[in-house]
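Progress narrative, Year 2. Work on O-methyltransferase from Halosquirtibacter laminarini advanced from sequence curation to structure prediction during this period.
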Amino acid sequence: MHNSSLDLEQYILNHIDNEDPILSQLDRDTHANVLYSRMCSGHLQGSILTFLSKLVSPQNILELGTFTGYSAISLAKGLKEGGKLHTVEINDELEEFAFSYFEKAGLSETIIQHIGNAEEIVPALDETFDLVFMDADKRRYVEHYEMVIDKVSQGGVILADNTLWDGKVVEPIANNDLQTKGILAFNDHVKNDPRVETTILPLRDGITMLRKR
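Result:
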């Protein structure tokens, strides 16, 4: 499709709300200083996360995979007054980076950081979540989904990132490609789970959207 997809994305960016200056700075800082910077949500995905969060109007949000904090800040914009966002990141080297931007965004009291393995941290959280954003280890997506589903309120929403995985979900899979296998297993699992309604938004690497019945 030559450059049509890039042109179309730029057209979209030109016709949505302007990027929050703090998020713009965060994105630049991430790309300048952090490995795997393409994992940063960026303006287009961030705007959709904010929009969806405002539609849900959650009291509590859970995020699996903080990275540098772009998605957490985007999601937190939709919280009800007094609401909290719990975000879990296994890489402790990113903790201070993300927290510095939570402070700049005025969200250091709203966003609660947890550093460590989500499968140890999340079961200990005594909360019900209206919105969950899954963006951690793709190999463990099914396990993470089962870990959070009972903590989601009725009518609550789960968003799972990267579920089209750069198109690899429709290509032959190498035996050692555990991340693609994990995503395929997750997509099949939720498609057949009667507890949720399921659709996929073909944005960037794909976002699976689930609503708890």
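The chain has one domain: 4-212. The first strand starts at residue 60 and ends at 64.
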